[in-house]
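Appendix B.2, paired examples.
Example (i):
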Amino acid sequence: MAEGDRGAMAELYDRYSGALMAIGQRLLRSEREAEDLLHDVFLEVWRHAADYDPARGSVRSWVVMRLRSRALDRLKSVTHTRVVSLETVDLPEPTTQPETAAHLDHQQVRDALQQLPADQRIVLEQAYFEGLSLSEIAAQQGAPLGTIKSRLARALQRLREILHEFHEGGG
């Protein structure tokens, strides 16, 4: 492919397009978006075939990493415009009873998040509400990746415990 062999491109497409499409659909949750992504990734692979280094991994890994990277870029560009701080979310008031399950769930999550230590809450918000990868969070906070992973794991565990307590306590 690096020498412009279209047959090599066709072979690569035949070999990996099915798996890449499945990964794209799983990441983007849209068949149309996954098709667009697949097209873009194969164009990129064609243009940058000379960049492939067998010492760094298999062709499959190289192509999958390009697809994953482009999918995350797309997700960030879509979710970036929808980033909202939990403290400023203005949920509509229930129209019937003030104690509806949906209202309680939102309020319980807000309350539970406020009970987390700040370092854990920030990592959780950055990962889930801002769409940042753990590597990006680590770089932004100047902390080791392992520390960020641990904070997120502890935050999720504690959030589960707090919400379970709300449920069990009837709150």
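Example (ii):
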Amino acid sequence: MKVFQSPPSLNTTRRFPDNMTNAHALLLKAKMGEKGNRKETGYAVPAFNVTTFQGINAAFKAFELLGSSGLLAFSNSALKHFGLGDPLFGLEVASEYVAKMAKRSSVKIATHLDHGDYTSEAGRKVVQGAVEMLTSVMADNSTDHNTKKSTDLADNIGYTREVVNMAHPVGVSVEGELGVLAGEEDEDTKSDFSTYTNPDEFEKFITETGVLLIAPTIGTMHGPNKGKPGQKVKLNIELAHELLKIADRVQPETVFVAHGASTLYPQVVEYTVNQMGQIGSALADRFTQTWKDFVGTDWKQIKGLISAGFAKINTDTENRQTYLAGLLGAVNENSAKIDIRWYDNQTTDAITQSYIMKLIMAGDYGVWYEPKINVDKFVFDLNRSLKEAIEAAK
């Protein structure tokens, strides 16, 4: 009879480069409500999916301003972009850039591979590279991309356990996923169907894989259309609490991850529609309704997830929207300006505001030092500059 061997524990003595740490260290602090030398109610660390150097720069601005724990996530598509089509080269470029930025930082930073696929040869190479160059990886083996169905539980456990065996001994935390999330994040992450996480399978999964980060599926969706226009997506908060009880019994240091949790701010939609109308009626007529039809995840329900142990809140779509809104505003302000650095600065400032807002909403501020602004006074408003927004919040 085959004897079950416990998965390897996460090596907590590993020393990463200056101000870098693994994601689990930051998320466990959030779940426990730890800020400085005090304990508060639990909060969440937004995982910002970054696809450009602008996104990284904007995130560091927000982290430094608020004294936040910083978590930067890279999808396979983002790594291809950084690496001119080669995700492994992209890993080198992105990880080295973040490490240099972190060295100058005053907060703790983690880097994370989002939706790493260990079921294919190409995916395995990226996951293996991420274990070497990042501080956290996601082993997303929940979907069989050939059959477009959920992966067999034993296979999901087996693949995910392989990643844990490789990553935990070197201090790299691992995130697993159980269940399938519907929607499309990018060309490498999409599914036409969704399945809730089964509680019985959940206990077996976390016990046999040893993952400390787990993404259960409770109704969130990838992409900008998380349901029908005018209707809120209903999250299964009851299931989330049921899974939390299991996790706390099996491994209390387990933290939950919410994928597809972008909020999609109404003020950004309003600002964008206004900018398109000013640029030209043809543009407005063509795309205004698309923007108005975008549906995000209701933040009140996300707060319910945080109370159920969700300490990592993935956010991507809302920041892409904000970038585009900022770009439209910049073009509308001066479409003849040939200094492209000005456009870079305008769009970077826009997504910095978005990052600041989400960090405040999630409670991820004052973790490493007191914020440099009054978080209760900050207003996310693309009609004014980042500098003006910061000054108004002091």
